[in-house]
């Protein structure tokens, strides 16, 4: 660490908690990685939780002249979220929001994920304007700092044009809240020189007609190259100029502490169509005509893009090759208007030679697969790239009337420089094209080939066509050397003076957006060494992080892969042997032991990488496979032993007092982590009594061990008892398999890599279910999410008899049981959708059940609770971390609903609200529907 950085850290001691000043080498590598193809390792990583802390950090940086880079989610693609100095990460304290003017505006802190903002706005029929493909992962700070847009956003609904106000902390520590008259008045007085400087720059631009016209032309296009000089033309007040210059400034002019958006309608009625063409020219001419039609999105895909996803849509793309395609969406506030708009679009399309037209469909089951493959085009190259190569996505804009020529020119460049895998796709109405290809950076000749391509690309786009080198992904490092080429010396000089006005010491994100080094885009290129076939296709985009319960506790899936790649790269380097040994010891906890291994990362990953599978493999085989097999064979005794142990736990609580027992358990867990930390409320269920129901429809219930051993929230009866009552009330005659107390789906053994025992348990369950269901004639109700997932996945893999009719609980309850019940609604319930239910595709049905039980449903906002089988007991800190924000979200709820007994234990322990299974709530609030 440099002397300046040492002094910087010393200055922060006592100002920030020590655990949030991170200098550990492994963590600096892991936390310093973003989605770009560049690699810089910060000297220091900080987590800040408040504006006061940001001001403290800025003061120390000014004093020591060290650079600061602020980061929200790290999904940026152009190298603007990395640093070799100080990286400042947003902690949990930046997730606030406020709905304003009945949803017409929303006030957001920079740590809010974009999709979360839209979820809050959904009841008002509104959304934020920007809609980047990464909206489920990226955060408001990055969306605004990059002026990100997306498929439907265009140039009209981006952050610049929907900005209602912001709160910023400048490099000198001063604060401006543009929505607060007192703040604005104070800022005008304290920063008169800065505002006068902006006014003078605006006057200069107005006085140069050629420059002014260039700016207007550039911003008729999608453009995020350099600073938003249109702010100097669009506004008269320097306060407005400043606030709009900060949008798209990539953290180089100030820290965005809050952004207020004017929202846009989220029309409930939509339809999509896929159009295929035999010539690129016909496709692009169709785009020009659709610009005047009532469409909300038109996405272009070239021939290679279509070929890359042909296996995902074989019925449409598998028969023959097409030159190009358009994915068109129409949205409207009513079904009648939607039909009118579709008719108008069809009339426009009638004049063009379409090779194939799917017709417009308003059925989500039809159009969602089309949009899924369009969104998957970026990683499509990543999934097939050669080992050791990386993925680059460039983002350029042509004037729409030059789109066909622009596409042809780009295709020619890739043929010329030998990037045969390159795809072209993008937002056709804006002339905005994304270029995805897989260069290698592991040899000087490959770097030079990339240099030559970029030089030619800049000449084609910026010079020959007068387009924009960056349409929506931000300038970053990869286009910083070419900003002057696009804007000319006069425009570039204005940008340099803007930077000098707002950050005279150059401490904010140095090297990004403006950079005097003509080769900066060729330096610090990220290595992508082979690590393990399970994760080698990872492009480090970070989409997985929002679903990971360990993110911010230890490492996220992306960070686990980054570190494992480094460990593998060091494997044959004797100079790094000692460091590798030290890292491996740390990785056992940070990477392997603290991974929930539920696979939710794969559900968010564009190429389906399950980092948990790698962590599970790295744990190695079971340490006691023979014991595991014996336990699987005698699982009835295991269940009885668990129940007996819970009786002992209850007895100890009565003898010692619950509070004292909890303290003793915590002390023992800290001293010997293998001792589980048990919730004090755990108790055994009373023996189950099941009486046959004459005349009812037979259904087999597979009783999971948690639901038959553990008592529910009443402390006496199992949730299985509630399940049986609900099924009976709905006219079913539930039955249990013979010797059900000894059955297990095998998941407890599989999670410990005792696969022989797991398979044996699965085989016994298969035989029992076949017998109970009369060889598959009767439906089988799976009463617990994780066990249901295990059985359904096993059947899909051929390990369970195909005749078995397996039904996940939410699906059976929603489709078969709910129509037969009369429900009374409670006011407000919390809902947690377990990851096992999400992976089965049953989240919508569980939400519908919750909606039938409550007037208002508040979701936990957590993709995975981190309980993960028994990990909630053996490593409860993971579960607690994953649920740290849930209590604040569920204020006013009378109870919680879920569909996994173990998840409910963790939620009830750490979220401050009792969670029960959905069957328990149906039992409480239902009567037979006799109509």
From TrEMBL:
<keyword id="KW-0285">Flavoprotein</keyword>
<dbReference type="GO" id="GO:0046872">
    <property type="term" value="F:metal ion binding"/>
</dbReference>
<feature type="domain" description="4Fe-4S ferredoxin-type">
    <location>
        <begin position="527"/>
        <end position="558"/>
    </location>
</feature>
<keyword id="KW-0274">FAD</keyword>
<keyword id="KW-0560">Oxidoreductase</keyword>
<dbReference type="InterPro" id="IPR036318">
    <property type="entry name" value="FAD-bd_PCMH-like_sf"/>
</dbReference>
<feature type="domain" description="FAD-binding PCMH-type">
    <location>
        <begin position="38"/>
        <end position="266"/>
    </location>
</feature>
<dbReference type="InterPro" id="IPR004113">
    <property type="entry name" value="FAD-bd_oxidored_4_C"/>
</dbReference>
<dbReference type="GO" id="GO:0051536">
    <property type="term" value="F:iron-sulfur cluster binding"/>
</dbReference>
<keyword id="KW-0408">Iron</keyword>
<dbReference type="GO" id="GO:1903457">
    <property type="term" value="P:lactate catabolic process"/>
</dbReference>
<dbReference type="InterPro" id="IPR016164">
    <property type="entry name" value="FAD-linked_Oxase-like_C"/>
</dbReference>
<dbReference type="InterPro" id="IPR016169">
    <property type="entry name" value="FAD-bd_PCMH_sub2"/>
</dbReference>
<dbReference type="InterPro" id="IPR016166">
    <property type="entry name" value="FAD-bd_PCMH"/>
</dbReference>
<keyword id="KW-0411">Iron-sulfur</keyword>
<dbReference type="InterPro" id="IPR016167">
    <property type="entry name" value="FAD-bd_PCMH_sub1"/>
</dbReference>
<keyword id="KW-0809">Transit peptide</keyword>
<comment type="similarity">
    <text>Belongs to the FAD-binding oxidoreductase/transferase type 4 family.</text>
</comment>
<dbReference type="InterPro" id="IPR017900">
    <property type="entry name" value="4Fe4S_Fe_S_CS"/>
</dbReference>
<dbReference type="InterPro" id="IPR017896">
    <property type="entry name" value="4Fe4S_Fe-S-bd"/>
</dbReference>
<dbReference type="Pfam" id="PF01565">
    <property type="entry name" value="FAD_binding_4"/>
</dbReference>
<dbReference type="GO" id="GO:0071949">
    <property type="term" value="F:FAD binding"/>
</dbReference>
<dbReference type="Pfam" id="PF13183">
    <property type="entry name" value="Fer4_8"/>
</dbReference>
<dbReference type="GO" id="GO:0004458">
    <property type="term" value="F:D-lactate dehydrogenase (cytochrome) activity"/>
</dbReference>
<protein>
    <recommendedName>
        <fullName>D-lactate dehydrogenase (cytochrome)</fullName>
        <ecNumber>1.1.2.4</ecNumber>
    </recommendedName>
</protein>
<dbReference type="InterPro" id="IPR009051">
    <property type="entry name" value="Helical_ferredxn"/>
</dbReference>
<dbReference type="InterPro" id="IPR016171">
    <property type="entry name" value="Vanillyl_alc_oxidase_C-sub2"/>
</dbReference>
<keyword id="KW-0479">Metal-binding</keyword>
<dbReference type="GO" id="GO:0008720">
    <property type="term" value="F:D-lactate dehydrogenase (NAD+) activity"/>
</dbReference>
<dbReference type="Pfam" id="PF02913">
    <property type="entry name" value="FAD-oxidase_C"/>
</dbReference>
<dbReference type="InterPro" id="IPR006094">
    <property type="entry name" value="Oxid_FAD_bind_N"/>
</dbReference>
């Amino acid at each position: 660490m440099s002397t300046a950085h040492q002094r910087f850290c010393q200055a922060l001691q006592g100002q920030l908690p020590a655990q949030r000043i991170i200098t550990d080498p492994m963590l600096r590598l892991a936390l310093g990685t973003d989605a770009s193809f560049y690699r810089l390792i910060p000297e220091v990583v900080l987590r800040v939780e408040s504006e006061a802390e940001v001001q403290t950090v800025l003061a120390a940086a000014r004093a020591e002249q060290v650079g600061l880079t602020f980061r929200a989610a790290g999904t940026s693609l152009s190298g603007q979220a990395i640093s070799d100095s100080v990286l400042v990460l947003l902690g949990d304290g930046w997730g606030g929001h406020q709905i304003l003017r009945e949803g017409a505006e929303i006030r957001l802190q920079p740590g809010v994920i974009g999709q979360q903002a839209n979820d809050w706005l959904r009841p008002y029929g509104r959304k934020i304007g920007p809609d980047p493909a990464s909206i489920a992962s990226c955060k408001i700070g990055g969306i605004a700092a990059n002026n990100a847009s997306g498929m439907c956003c265009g140039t009209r609904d981006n952050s610049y044009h929907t900005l209602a106000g912001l709160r910023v902390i400048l490099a000198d520590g001063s604060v401006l809240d543009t929505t607060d008259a007192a703040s604005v008045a104070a800022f005008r007085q304290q920063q008169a020189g800065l505002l006068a400087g902006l006014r003078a720059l605006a006057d200069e631009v107005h006085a140069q007609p050629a420059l002014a016209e260039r700016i207007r032309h550039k911003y008729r296009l999608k453009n995020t190259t350099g600073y938003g000089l249109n702010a100097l033309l669009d506004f008269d007040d320097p306060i407005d100029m400043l606030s709009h210059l900060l949008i798209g400034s990539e953290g180089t002019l100030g820290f965005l502490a809050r952004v207020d958006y004017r929202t846009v309608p989220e029309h409930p009625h939509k339809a999509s169509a896929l159009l295929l063409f035999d010539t690129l020219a016909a496709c692009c001419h169709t785009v020009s005509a659709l610009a005047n039609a009532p469409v909300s999105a038109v996405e272009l895909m070239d021939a290679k893009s279509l070929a890359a996803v042909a296996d995902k849509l074989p019925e449409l793309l598998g028969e023959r090759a097409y030159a190009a395609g358009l994915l068109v969406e129409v949205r409207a506030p009513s079904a009648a208007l939607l039909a009118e708009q579709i008719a108008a679009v069809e009339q426009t399309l009638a004049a063009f030679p379409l090779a194939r037209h799917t017709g417009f469909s308003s059925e989500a089951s039809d159009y969602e697969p089309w949009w899924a493959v369009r969104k998957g085009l970026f990683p499509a190259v990543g999934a097939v790239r050669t080992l050791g190569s990386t993925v680059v996505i460039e983002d350029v804009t042509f004037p729409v009337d030059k789109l066909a020529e622009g596409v042809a020119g780009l295709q020619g460049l890739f043929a010329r420089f030998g990037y045969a895998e390159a795809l072209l796709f993008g937002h056709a109405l804006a002339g905005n094209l994304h270029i995805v290809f897989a260069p290698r950076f592991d040899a000087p000749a490959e770097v030079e080939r990339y240099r030559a391509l970029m030089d030619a690309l800049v000449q084609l786009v910026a010079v020959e066509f007068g387009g924009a080198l960056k349409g929506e992904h931000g300038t970053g490092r990869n286009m910083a050397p070419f900003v002057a080429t696009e804007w000319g010396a006069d425009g570039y000089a204005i940008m340099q003076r803007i930077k000098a006005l707002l950050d005279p010491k150059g401490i904010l994100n140095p090297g990004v957006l403006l950079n005097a080094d003509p080769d900066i885009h060729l330096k610090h290129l990220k290595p992508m060494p082979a690590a393990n076939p399970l994760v080698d296709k990872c492009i480090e985009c970070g989409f997985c992080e929002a679903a990971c319960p360990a993110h911010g506790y230890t490492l996220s899936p992306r960070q686990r892969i980054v570190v494992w790649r480094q460990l593998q790269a060091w494997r044959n380097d004797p100079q790094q042997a000692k460091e590798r040994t030290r890292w491996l010891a740390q990785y056992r906890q940070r990477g392997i032991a603290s991974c929930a291994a539920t696979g939710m990362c794969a559900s968010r990953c564009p190429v389906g990488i399950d980092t948990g599978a790698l962590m599970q493999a790295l744990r190695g085989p079971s340490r006691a496979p023979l014991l595991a097999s014996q336990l699987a064979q005698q699982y009835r005794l295991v269940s009885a032993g668990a129940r007996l142990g819970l009786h002992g736990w209850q007895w100890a609580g009565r003898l010692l007092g619950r509070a004292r027992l909890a303290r003793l358990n915590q002390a023992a867990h800290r001293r010997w982590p293998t001792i589980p930390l048990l919730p004090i409320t755990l108790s055994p269920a009373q023996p189950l009594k099941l009486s046959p129901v004459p005349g009812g429809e037979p259904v087999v219930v597979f009783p999971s061990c948690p639901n038959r051993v553990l008592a529910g929230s009443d402390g006496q009866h199992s949730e299985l008892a509630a399940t049986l009552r609900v099924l009976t009330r709905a006219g079913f005659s539930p039955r249990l398999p013979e010797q059900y107390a000894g059955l297990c789906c095998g998941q407890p053994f599989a999670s410990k890599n005792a696969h022989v025992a797991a398979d044996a348990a699965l085989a016994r369950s298969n035989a029992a279910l076949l017998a109970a269901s009369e060889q598959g004639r009767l439906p089988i109700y799976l009463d617990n999410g994780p066990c249901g997932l295990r059985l359904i996945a096993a059947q899909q893999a051929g390990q369970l008899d195909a005749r078995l009719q397996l039904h996940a609980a939410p699906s059976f309850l929603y489709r078969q049981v709910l129509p037969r019940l009369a429900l009374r609604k409670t006011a407000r319930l919390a809902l947690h959708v377990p990851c096992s239910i999400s992976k089965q595709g049953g989240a919508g049905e569980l939400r519908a059940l919750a909606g039938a039980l409550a007037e208002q449903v508040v979701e936990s906002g957590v993709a995975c609770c981190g309980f993960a089988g028994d990990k909630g007991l053996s490593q409860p800190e993971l579960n607690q971390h994953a649920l740290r924000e849930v209590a604040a979200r569920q204020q006013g709820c009378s109870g919680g609903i879920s569909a996994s007994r173990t998840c409910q234990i963790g939620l009830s322990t750490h979220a401050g609200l009792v969670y029960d299974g959905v069957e328990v709530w149906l039992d409480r609030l239902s009567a037979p529907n006799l109509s």
